[in-house]
Amino acid sequence: MRWNPWHGCRKISDGCLHCYVYRIDSRIDKDASEVKKNISTFNLPIAKNRRGEYKYPSGTLFYTCFTSDFFLDEADGWRDEAWKIIKERRDCRFFIITKRIDRFDACKPVDWGDGYDHVTIAVTTENQKMADYRLPIYLNLPIKTKVIICEPLLEPIDLSKYLTPEIKSVSVGGESGDDARICDYDWVLGIREQCMRAGVGFSYHQTGAKLMKNGKLYHIPKDKQEDQAHRAGIDVSIEKGEQ
Ligand code: SF4
Q: Which of 23, 88, 114, 154 is deepest in the core (most CB within 10 A)?
């Protein structure tokens, strides 16, 4: 289930160049750089039906803040309220992806401690520069479930020194959209190899719109990108137990 307590974002790194939030908003003449609280859906995880029961049952996975960044400074005034909602639904799971892990300490709730058991914080690293900046910060933070997302993958990345036992998995994908940058399959395989050596799970999430494989460029339609990646059959599952 998607839960977007606010909408809109500010571009901060190379991976943001063709951000899908901007792309989708531009189709309806909306300015994605204007960050707004989503009043009507802000309380979605704690919404109740007429019988006073939660609309979303125990165990629901909420993909949180997928049309913004949860740690965006423009959202500082709303985040405590969002944390309260997350805390109330400890019977569910929340999956948050950020490019602003350097703001985590300033933005975490006061009772975070070693981390909430039901919250995964994933960090995006699209190139080596961002891996080398964000991942040392990430590895030092008290977060129960850690996932690295290399999407859109823009170049080969050496993640090996960051693939410690606390990293549950790495997910890799290319870029979508008409202006997508090329994702080379060899870069994908390179990260997979590093994950296998380190005993970290790996998934090839989607090919992106322009896939380079064995020196040949393939244009993959949006509705085939996930399927094509899945068909490659290169995911690696490593059981680390529920964290
Ligand atoms: S951080 Fe994410 S949502 Fe924000 S501009 Fe970059 S890609 Fe878009």
A: 154
How far is Cα 68 from Cα 84, in angstroms, rounded to an integer?
Answer: 19
Collapsed DSSP state (helix, strand, coil) of residue 132: helix
- What separation in Å is there between the alpha carbon of 10 and the centre of ligand 1? 6
Mutation pick for ligand 1 pocket among 11, 72, 123 (CB with most ligand atoms within 8 Å) = 11
Pocket test residue of 6, 9, 66, 125 for ligand 1, highest count of atoms within 8 A of CB: 9
- pLDDT range class, residue 241, cuts 50, 70, 90: low
Task: Decide the pairing of beta strands 36-37 and 6-7.
Answer: antiparallel
* Residues 177, 103 share a domain: no
Give the residue from 95, 124, 153 where a domain finishes: 124
Q: Are residues 210 and 189 in the same domain?
A: yes
Domain that includes residue 14, residue range: 1-124
| 132: amino acid identity, one letter | D
**Token pair recorded at residue 89:** 């639904």
- Does the pTM surpass 0.90? The reply is yes
